[in-house]
User: What shape does this take?
Amino acid sequence: MATATANATPGPKVNQIGLPILEYRGGKSTLCAGCGHNAISERIIDAMFEMGVQPERVVKMSGIGCSSKSPAYFMSRSHSFNSVHGRMPSVTTGAVLANHTLTALGVSGDGDTASIGIGQFVHLMRRNLPMIYIIEDNGVYGLTKGQFSATADIGSVLKHGVINDLPPIDTCALAIQLGATFVGRSFSGDKKQLLAMLKAAIAHKGTVMLDVLSPCVTFNDHEGSTKSYKFLQEHDDPINEVGFIDDFEEIDVDYGSGQIFDVPMHDGSTLRLRKLHEDYDPSDKANAVRTLMEAHENNEILTGVFYIESQKPTFIDQLNIVDEPLATLPQSLTRPPQHALDSLMASLQ
Amino acid sequence: MATGNLTLGQEQGTLSARQRIVNDFSIIVATVNGSGSQSSNSVLLKSIFGMGVPVSGKNLFPSNIAGLPTWYTIRASKDGYVARKRDSEVLVSLNPETAREDVLALPAGGVAIYEEKLNLKQYRDDVVFYPVPIDKITAEVCPTAKLRKLVRNMVYVGAVAQILRIELGVVEGGLRKQFASKQKVFDSNFGAVKAGFDYAQQNLPKQDPFFIERSNQTTGQIVIDGNAACAMGAVFGGVTVVAWYPITPSTSLVEATIDLLKKLRMTPDGKATYAVVQAEDELAAIGMVLGAGWAGARSMTSTSGPGISLMAEFSGLGYYAELPGVIFDVERSGPSTGMPTRTQQADLLSTAFLSHGDTKHPILLPGNVKECFEMAGAAFDLAERLQTPVFVFTDLDLGMNNWMSEPFEYPAKPQDRGKVLTAEDLDRLGGFARYRDVDGDGIGWRTLPGTDHPKAAYFTRGSGHNDAAGYTEKPGEYQAIMDRLARKFDYARKLVPAPVTVRDGRSKIGFLAFGTTDFALRESLDQIEKEYGKKVDYMRIRAFPFTHAIHDFVASHERVYVVEQNRDGQMASLLKLDLPADQVAKLRSILFYNGLPIDARTITEEFAAKEGL
Assistant: This one.
């Protein structure tokens, strides 16, 4: 813990575990200037810092693509694994099973998730593995220079004029239907909303799936694109206002009852959702999916927390694993004794 | 000779009607898949084992749930031969669909024990016939119609036991062990055995020469299949994360693992010291294994050929990012879906270099169930020591069939968790470079995620990296890592199981083989000696990369026959890549790849033809 002495000049602001925000930074980004992904990395840094997460307790996981490079640009004090295209879910599953005391943060893209990785994505959602899964969603493949991905909207136009005529996969609707327990959508340009959602994500126990719309300034930020900064700023329609209240903060009572949906989080904190759409209840799964489907029909881009269920058992609960990490269990717990082998041998004679 | 038209005279020596053939013949049981004959055949096998006679069993089954023909062969051999024998002398015929073909395949002087209604006497007259009214006896001893299917098979067990003079008490003892806690099930099964036994005793006087006589050759031995043996090795080897996708013939390996984990790996307060995930496919299974290995767990998966193909991309990541993990491959006949219920040794070449780029993987090659147990455990040590995926190869023959063995020995060595730095180490060292070769063995030091030290973290990636785990596209930095990986693989030669010199009598001719080919080759060596007066040397390979002893074996012989169960001579090809150029021309291949397990006679005949004997 950094402590100020009488003679020292005041040090940088530190969080509740005594770390300055500098300790949450990563390497210099090699993504394009103005890329939405960089803003998301910044919000991750802010959220982890403000939540006082020990960086060594975090694993950063990713697949392949522009988005998947970004774990190199935040939290250098955390172990990181940039794996293969579309397979981050399985690698993360293995890592979390090996050590379920860690906080797993996965960063993927729309190609990495909704095309090559859709198989692993849907099965990850089913398991409610404790992890945060962020899709940095720009509707195009960046590293291969601008092909449509499976989250591109019908009618969206590429720079060179190609029009997308296949329907988009709504990863949020899919995640809700399949069993993820915290599902939301945000926009890299909405600092306040994204930060609050990330902080709540860190507090949640179970699979958090956040689809963060994140414009590609090089290949998908032009007139006719439905994932450009301009289009998103004009069409962003928050379904609720997301607030996150730490367990040590006073809960204010500014809003009238009926407007507020408070979710007690596993760590004692509270997720406060102020309803912006009339009667939207984020604990109603069927309604959440219907609302998302209707938004597509009306060409609306909804953001906010669509669905949350904080009491469902996680995959780790279901597997009934010991409290200590499996990775470092001593041999005395992982090698049965001599007499166990002796009696097996006797039964085979 | 391609197919089995041998008469008994050729295989057994001249046979007079009164000459007894004791503890040296094969039984073939022809049934319908799904009829529950697996357990009755197992009782028969264990009864012969219980008589103290060396025995082996092979299930030749179709890729089908129920309805297609199935054969089970049981070989009794006083000489301890456990390979498949081309011909069976005693037929147990219960399948009308194949009855004619089955009885015609018997050698002259053979025996047919059959459901009376099949009337096998119509097809030939040079074998001994024992008709048994199995359905009628079953109906009498089992009044409950729905149980009849299950006990019906026990009736033939009783009849066969009586005809071959297997003691009823031994059959009873085996059954009692199998149904230890279920008195009622035991009663109905043994009732059926007894009825079949009594019928044969009262109605079928002995006319054939085949006898099982009590011996003491199986004292202290166990009977187990290779998949269960691998499972045991993994559980005693300390596996903590298992991710898998069902596939024949490897499924029972993981199922046996799960059973053992539930029994042996719970804490006193009822928590599991393991996690098992049935993944969505083999890609996810290997991804979970490598993710778990990265985070420090002892992780494994088990699969067969098609699954190995799907694991190719991840295997390359495991090699390049240096991630431990154990992959069992219970090989079946390929390519593609191939024959999923038939055996082969044909995944060797593709797995040795599985993935794109310059990639290679250690492969362990157990040759019997005891080695399945030992190498399954050793694979975890090796994977963590070498920080790389390690493959363990068996095949359907070893994995799914029952084998006799010495009991397994408790692991003598503590687990080797490899080079892992703790927070205290980092305090002392002040930092580390993940991929730097500080010890000269090509293996770097790693930290586990969660290590409580600000310098513990590093970035794992499948993209180009330098020895500090930083991203690189610099030619020199990239190549330095590739060269170190090559040195590490070379160092692995010293760590993998050494070959076994089965026979080295300074012959000019040598054999090399691996895995299940060993059973047939050992028998063939005796045939070659007996029939051609030649003593030939034999070394059994137990791992890739090859140890130098294998080079020496080739160097000290004029001709070396590599015997294996695939079409393309995959082991021979792998050897050719490794041997000095002047040694390569010494290698010749004897190959067998029709989906059945290789037999000794095939090797002997091929060898004799190639040697011009």
Q: What stands out?
A: Residues 509 and 576 of chain B are 17 Å apart (CA to CA). The first helix of chain B runs from residue 8 to 12. The first strand of chain B starts at residue 21 and ends at 22.
